[in-house]
Write a structure and sequence with these properties.
Chain lengths: 113, 114
């Protein structure tokens, strides 16, 4: 068990809908990262938050947004969903110095029908 | 831009045989290198990491990896594979210059024959 909790484990929804994925980092970790794993794109970095502030952005679509709350949990919001958004979404957290180890949650599998 | 290449998409190995998974990276500064394993339906588990120092690093489950700067490689090895090692393995590079984001290779799926 990595200590990173993601909910829900599975999400099935329809095109055009909006969903929210939730991540609770390991106790004490200030950084949260979101990654998307899909068959065609592989594992891609989406966005990073550190202590409530956005730190880095990767290949995140404008339809997607994220935030990190004062209690350090994070949410990834996906809107106007398309079939191609179907993927496994991972959250990771790290503490300590930059470049530190990222611990991954079990992921949320999103299916857009 | 940073990148990671895992040249082997699939590898089949007999139980008890040795395993080597290749990883080549491109990174403009001092890299931090990682190997993660993903079992079916599971998340990513860290096997080992290289930040600095000894270029041969030991990880969990009997895995080791060697950092070779001159070859931009970080290959993963295990002397004797167990059936439970069947999984997908991902090499990743990160570091201060990249703002700590990880860039992953495409993964190598390992099948273990009895």
């Amino acid at each position: 068990d990595s200590g990173v909790t993601q909910t829900p484990k599975h999400l099935i929804t329809a095109t055009g809908q909006r969903v929210t994925l939730r991540c609770s980092p390991r106790s004490g970790d200030l950084s949260v990262y979101w990654y998307q794993q899909s068959l065609d794109q592989g594992l891609q970095f989406l966005i990073q938050y550190y202590n409530g502030e956005e730190r880095a952005k990767g290949n995140i679509l404008e339809r997607f947004s994220a935030q990190q709350f004062p209690d350090l949990h994070s949410e990834l919001n996906l809107s106007s969903l398309e079939l191609g958004d179907s993927a496994l979404y991972f959250c990771a957290s790290s503490g300590g110095p930059p470049g530190g180890i990222q611990y991954f949650g079990a992921g949320t599998r999103l299916s857009v029908l | 831009a940073q990148s990671v290449t895992q040249p082997d998409i699939h590898i089949t190995v007999s139980e008890g045989a040795s395993l080597e998974l290749r990883c080549n990276y491109s990174y403009g500064a001092t890299p931090y290198l990682f190997w993660y394993v993903q079992s079916p339906g599971q998340g990513l588990q860290l096997l080992l990491k290289y930040f600095s120092g000894d270029t041969l690093v030991q990880g969990i489950k009997g895995f080791e990896a060697e950092f070779k700067r001159s070859q931009s490689s970080f290959n993963l090895r295990k002397p004797s594979v167990h059936w439970s090692d069947a999984a997908e393995y991902f090499c990743a590079v990160g570091g201060l210059a990249a703002g700590n984001k990880l860039t992953f290779g495409g993964g190598t799926r390992v099948l273990v024959k009895p």
